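Our consortium's second objective concerns turning raw sequence data into structural hypotheses that experimental partners can test. To show how far this objective has progressed, the report includes one record in full. It was chosen at random from the queue rather than selected for favorable results. The single chain below, 360 residues long, was entered without modification.
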Amino acid sequence: MSTRHNWTQDEIIALYHTPMMDLLYQAATVHRQHHDPNVVQVSTLLSIKTGGCPEDCGYCPQAARYHTNLEGNDLMSVQQVKAQALRAKSSGSSRVCMGAAWRNVKDGPEFDQVLEMVRTINKLDMEVCCTLGMLTENQAKRLAEAGLYAYNHNLDTSEDYYKEVISTRGFEDRLKTIENVRKTNVTVCSGGIIGMGETVEDRAGMLVALATLNPQPESVPINALVAVEGTPLEDQKPIEIWEMIRMVATTRIVMPETQVRLSAGRTEMSREGQALCFLAGANSIFAGDKLLTTPNPDVNEDMKMFELLGLQPQKPFIKIMQPQTVEAEDSQYQPLGEKPKWSRPGHVIERNEKASLKNK
């Protein structure tokens, strides 16, 4: 299956509503054509500056205008971040994503400090991701020069539903930041949240916006809303695990080469539910006791789950090869008696190759 960039909303809605067993089979098949099904990346999300954000995102406890009893903090020091990164690495994480509660990046001492954090973590042979709000082209280039591996900027939902959740930033603003990142060698991480009151049509609309980008994002987080008291979405009921499985599976089919990240909401998911998400094509999780400010499963519990399912943590700087260029001759996975073909992670990119890695 080659990567398409012309998916329509109707096509994606039809996929989403496919009978569950058929949807799982199709998604799992696509997953094995492009990824090793037993390798899952473990990432750690670190809030380097918490609270006080001027935005009005309806799901976010860090917005200054909401009363969520969140304890904010100023920008962490480089040494504090390094200590957290080393801790994450020892627990099996290959990527550290640093989040700051900013509407947009402002040039100055704080941004310089973030650039030093990126350089420091990069020297630990870990992938570095940042989510700092809107970026200019020049700021994206400076992050790239510091060694940033990925930049996260979620679309959150469809363009049509976006204004129901956020008014302080437009949908086009998010696309512009992704465009600025694409002018560098930094990879793009962009996904969204389900369970905010949106329709299936909105979920499909978000996937259309992501899947029609060329190239598609290298990473797509799928989050289940964690309703926080004091935010406008505090009364939203948790989504059922089946909705998460359908969303992961549909994302995998329309973006076959992308790393699909099973993100917020895992504390409400059983191991069995998460296993079905992995079967459906999720191949990344966030580890640690918090995702910025919301609860997350204990890392030891995640490692027990990995052991139970026979999953291995992905190494950093893995270059995914092109579809069907590597046959898994020694694979034990042979569905319906057929020898499968999938592209598996290739070589670990050496330090002097990182800067020249280009998006494909």
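The partners drew two points from this record. Confidence is low (pLDDT under 50) at residues 321-360. The chain is about 35% helix and 15% strand. Both points have been shared with the crystallography group to help prioritize constructs.
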